[in-house]
Design goal:
Helix 1 packs antiparallel against helix 2 (53-78). This protein has helices spanning 14-46, 53-78, 84-103, 106-116. The chain has one domain (14-116). By secondary structure, the protein is mainly alpha-helical. 7% of the residues are buried. The chain contains four helices and no strands. Helix content is 77%, strand content 0%.
Length: 117
């Protein structure tokens, strides 16, 4: 005999899965569009004569955002919502790091990014 879950605690119904699939697909679409932005950034950097630390650090931070969003997409599709909070908190942290990197003294900050990370 299979034990049925308490729906209020862990909704595993078909309706709940349908909603989670919609959200997961929307997040996955944002990740896919972000990969195009990332690829274009790399393409532009490739055409430069000299590539600086900022040309590498900024796209790497953007890629990290895409990886976090992709992890959220997978977890939402699986119905594992609570651990997504960690990734949701990490995304604004990476965005703030990216803003700081691009604000001023970008070459110096980008060099520090490689030393620390």
């Amino acid at each position: 005999m299979k034990t049925k879950p308490v729906e209020n605690v862990l909704p595993l119904s078909v309706e709940a899965q349908t909603v989670m699939d919609v959200y997961s697909d929307a997040i996955h679409e944002m990740v896919c569009r972000g990969t195009h932005i990332f690829a274009e950034s790399l393409k532009r950097n490739k055409s430069k004569e000299t590539i600086t630390e900022i040309d590498i650090a900024a796209p790497l931070l953007f890629r990290h955002i895409l990886e976090l969003m992709d992890a959220i997409s997978v977890q939402v599709k699986s119905g594992v919502i609570v651990p997504c909070k960690v990734y949701l908190r990490a995304i604004p942290e990476v965005v703030v790091s990216l803003e700081y990197l691009l604000r001023e003294n970008t070459e110096e900050i980008a060099a520090c990014f490689f030393i620390v990370d």
